[in-house]
Specification:
Blueprint lengths: L3 H40 L3 H15 L3 H17 L3 H24 L12
Helix pairs in contact: 1-2, 1-3, 2-3, 2-4, 3-4
């Protein structure tokens, strides 16, 4: 039979795991929402179309959706720093090539869960 302290400790541990899982889900969802917003601005699509683009890339290339979203955000931020025709050309192939950059990053990190966002 468990004493009262053990029951409280178990409940606290369970609550902490739930809180951590919720935080993780919220962070991943925020990245997806930011990427959707960027795609909406760049390509002039609505939220559903932007999500469909991310989802399609995720499914077609067997890459987690949040990793596709992170890569798109990283690439669009980098492109925003550039000016001129190079920027316009690069935007065209951005989505289609994100999976290659993710696979390259994942191949360097055996867990496959490595964030594609720059550190910081």
């Amino acid at each position: 039979m468990q004493d009262e302290t053990t029951v409280v400790d178990d409940a606290d541990g369970h609550q902490q795991r739930i809180t951590e899982a919720l935080r993780s889900i919220t962070e991943r969802r925020a990245v997806i929402e930011q990427a959707k917003g960027m795609l909406m601005l760049v390509y002039g699509v609505d939220a559903d179309e932007a999500f469909d683009v991310l989802r399609r890339q995720s499914q077609d290339n067997n890459v987690k959706l949040n990793l596709v979203a992170e890569q798109v955000m990283k690439d669009l931020v980098e492109l925003a720093r550039n000016k001129g025709p190079v920027r316009q050309l690069a935007l065209g192939g951005l989505i289609d090539s994100a999976n290659r950059r993710i696979k390259h990053s994942a191949s360097r990190h055996p867990d496959g869960q490595r964030s594609t966002l720059p550190p910081g």
